[in-house]
Specification:
This protein has about 110 residues and is mainly α. It has one domain. It is built from three helices and no strands. Helix 1 (about 5-35) runs antiparallel to helix 2. The two termini are about 45 Å apart. The mean pLDDT is about 75.
Length: about 110
């Protein structure tokens, strides 16, 4: 996935997570106002909105965290590959210098 597509995806996920958070707060507000005005329907809808907002928020926060973990893990893997390759190059240079001492001077 390209960097631009990844940035767009992360922006969309963050926006949806924020929307889920706002839905949670709206649901909580509806529960309180429904309780205050003694409206069972408002309390029921508020509870449902709060639960739905919590679930949406949790899903997208989890998705963003998973993507960040995968990205960091790939960075570590690439760094380890680089270290192994540089070590192998060093070993080959040392062997080459022992076999051909005159070329090592050049």
């Amino acid at each position: 996935m390209s960097s631009t597509a990844s940035n767009v995806s992360n922006t969309i996920d963050a926006t949806l997570a924020a929307a889920g958070s706002k839905a949670t707060y709206t649901g909580s507000g509806m529960v309180l106002s429904g309780w205050f005005f003694s409206s069972e329907f408002a309390v029921f809808v508020g509870i449902l909105m709060g639960i739905a907002g919590f679930l949406v928020n949790w899903y997208y926060k989890h998705k963003i965290a998973s993507a960040e973990i995968k990205f960091k893990l790939q960075k570590v893997i690439n760094l380890r590959k680089l270290i192994v390759l540089s070590h192998l190059i060093h070993i080959l240079e040392v062997r080459h210098a022992k076999q051909w001492p005159l070329f090592h001077i050049l």
